[in-house]
Amino acid sequence: MMPTFEGVEHRSSNLDSGGELVLLSLRLLLNLLGILTASSRRQPAPGMEMVVKKYQQKFKKVRDEMSRWDKLQSRLLSQFRNASAIIERLKVLQEPKNYGQLICVNGIREAILGKQMESLQTILISMKKTLEEFHGVVISLEKILRDGRQQLKGGSMSPSTNQMQLRIGIRPSLADCLEGLRLIHEMYHSEYQVKASIVSALALKLSASDLGVLHQLLVDQPNIPKEEVQFIFDIILAEEIC
Amino acid sequence: MYTPEALVSITSPPPSSSSSSSSGLKESKLETTDCNLNSNIASPSLSPSVTRLWRPAAQRNLRNQFSKLLSYKQQWMSASSSGRSHATSLVNAYLSQRYMPAMDLGVISDMPDIRKRACYKLALQQGLNGRKLLSSYKDMVSVVSHMVNTCSSMRCFNKGPAGSPLVQFSSYSEDKNDSGDGAGIPIFTFWPIPYFENLGQELLQMFALELSLKRFLLVELLSLGCEEVSQQTDGLCWSNELYPGEFVDLTINNLYSKETCQPLPPRLKGLEFDDPSTVAVRSKQQPRQEILQVYLTAWLAEVNIDIYRVDEIFAMVGEEMHVSFS
């Protein structure tokens, strides 16, 4: 009834764990088969293993950044809900006929409107701050990616295409790692831009019409498909899961 | 200004009447009358020794009073916010009752008396939330009463017979000539007592005006009823006492008018109430949903309390006292 603090249905983040497990064991099996064929045919360059390990470390850092993102996401959602509650209310508050008996208190309409605008302004400012922190996550991801690329180019050895593609056991290939880092950075980078434009739309338009759509867009995070992210991690950090 | 000497002197022997007699023209004149020794302590020119003793006591008192004010502010905030959630539940229960006839109940719509029973339940909920809301209001009344009390206890008076070896202080005047402000000397760094009192009053006024506005909303919300019920009973009006002893409390808070025999009408700071007569007359029509939404927003907005100013006052006072209120 009141738009103050409505409950919002959160998108369930639980994956279908049963199906996921089957997929994973299949992949493991394939990888195990791979070890027999691969190791008999070519020998991995020494030190290659270390590079992959370093990449896996990077993915752990990426995971930390992602959980930071999730915390920011729930903060941003609650800020958005509070802001849109006020925006939706403003129209009702502007009509003197909606004040009932309260209209005999001189100046009440202006005072309430003023207070609400003040709170809205405060919320918008804190949303901008949250946005900056989102940007911080994107920058960290970018740095991790850059470091990853640097490691291959700047290192003493520059791996051949074969070496890039080589998977040892359940370990990921270098190409897997690099592509994973690139994809994740790209996803979060685009999603950050979506969020930034939603926040500025909210600050500029202040109309109640599209609030629901904007909110849904914020919740959905269309640029970050959860399954795909999970898939990347399953490949890179397969050892952890078994 | 704030000399360590003043603190040291607490342990020194208190001044005897003979020693204070030598310290000023006015005092020696009073000495000759020998009937009102107490007043020479509070007279415009204090003897230095008494000042040394008075000042720490006044400082202690002011620190206490302002930290009390701070805790009252916090109590107000929590009472106000729980009041807000009770008010929201009350309005929701009320509106659900009103919409019950038109509500689509799906498969259970065939159950006998289902709408009636649902309405009965909702009415119970509404009543319960009304009582909770009233109790939040009561808490706010008592917060303001405490503030009134605190704001009138900022001075520091001499206590006990003059010239007694023990100099004591209290926040109540026992002597008309003792103004309790230490003859206007700075208490901590720069400000004399009235300065603190004014800031206290400024805080008090915000909360008192907001209390009055909250009462107005409370009356409106508590008189919400189902259409049939409201025709039988007249609902509440502004001049009704909302709980036993409310008017006594409001008199303490300076929110009750003896002339009109009802609480002072709500107003905003610096503005007068439009027309007091309109408060008594309320349209029989039940308020629309938008109006209720505005009422709830008005409760939430606390238009009379400028929270930035409140924080600023506590910060300023804290700085002056070398204490941090936060």
Give the N-to-C terminal Cα separation of chain A. 49 Å
Total helical segments of chain A: 8
Helix/strand/pairing category of chain A: mainly alpha
Measured on Cα atoms, how large is the radius of gyration of chain B? 27 Å
Rg measurement of chain A, Å: 25 Å
Tally the helices of chain B.
12
- List the uncertain runs of chain B: 1-43
Record field, number of beta strands of chain A:
0
Strands side by side in the biggest sheet of chain B: 1-2
Region (Disordered) (chain B): 1-29
Please outline what is shown here.
The complex is a heterodimer of chains A (242) and B (326). Chain A has 242 residues and is mostly helical.
Account of the 3D structure:
The complex is a heterodimer of chains A (242) and B (326). Chain A is mostly helical and 242 residues long. Chain A is built from eight helices and no strands. Chain A folds into two domains: 33 residues; 193 residues, no CATH class. In chain A, helix 2 runs antiparallel to helix 3. Chain A starts with 16 loop residues before the first helix and ends with a helix. Chain B has a two-stranded antiparallel ribbon. The two termini of chain B are 25 Å apart. Chain A: InterPro entries: CA109-like, OPRN-like.
